[in-house]
Structures are given as C-alpha cells and as structure tokens.
C-alpha cells in the first residue's frame, strides 16, 4: 500500500479516536471544557484512571446500599454492618453468601437499573 494511502488511513483513525475520546470525556466530566488538543484529550484520559476507580467503588457502594435497604424493608431490625462483619448465625455456618449469587442476580440487575448513577460515594 502506498505511503500516501497509509497516511490517509492514519488521519482517519486519529479523527475517529478523537471523536471517541471527546464523547467519553463529556460523559465522565459533564460541564467541564474539553481539552484544546488531541494530546490534551489523551492526557485527560490517562489521568482518568484514579477517577474510574472512584466510579467503580461508588457503583459498588450504591448497589450494596440499595440491596441492604430492600432487605431492611422485610427485616427492619437487620444490622447491615453486623451482617457483613460477622459470620452466619449459630447453626447456619454451612451457609455462605456465594451459595446465593446465582439466585439473586436477576434482582441485582433490577437494582442496578434503579441506581441514579449521578451520585458519587467516596
């Protein structure tokens, strides 16, 4: 392939990458100004790694918060912190949370759909 065709393809690739980066940055930092250069876009995304960790943690906290709140609707006296820190009640040591993951997945997806996704927990 001639060098001129390779350069044209490279320019098109960079244009597509730039548009993708802009779209991602707008979603991650709504209201913030976009960087003025291609390299500014790249720098912003490289700097996003710590922010992504905060977002992942926040999503996990929000899901757990909603799940515990729903459980408290049925068991109002439930102490979520005690539930997490202590093992199963006496006589039920054979029960482990992992045994129930598959059975609660559909409910977990419904809770995920309810999450506002605009609240950050740190």
Task: Give your account of this protein's structure.
- This protein is mostly helical and about 120 residues long.
- It folds into 2 domains: about 1-45, no CATH class; about 50-120, no CATH class.
- Helices cover about 65% and strands about 0% of the residues.
- It has 5 helices and no strands.
- The chain has helices at about 5-30, 40-45, 50-75, 80-85, 100-115.
- Helix 1 (about 5-30) packs across helix 2.
- The longest helix is centred in the first third of the chain and has 26 residues, at about 5-30.
- The N and C termini lie far apart (about 50 Å).
Please give the structural blueprint:
Elements: H1 3-28, H2 38-46, H3 49-74, H4 80-85, H5 101-114
Number of strands: 0
> Can you give the mean pLDDT?
85
Strand proportion = under 5%
* Assembly form of the protein: single chain
Terminal-residue CA separation: 52 Å
Q: Helical percent range?
A: 55-70%
Output the structural class: mainly alpha
- The rough form would be described as elongated
**Contiguous helical run count:** 5
Name the poorly predicted regions. none
Q: Report the radius of gyration as a whole number of Å.
A: 23 Å
Largest sheet: none
Please indicate the count of domains: 2
Return the string of H and E elements: HHHHH
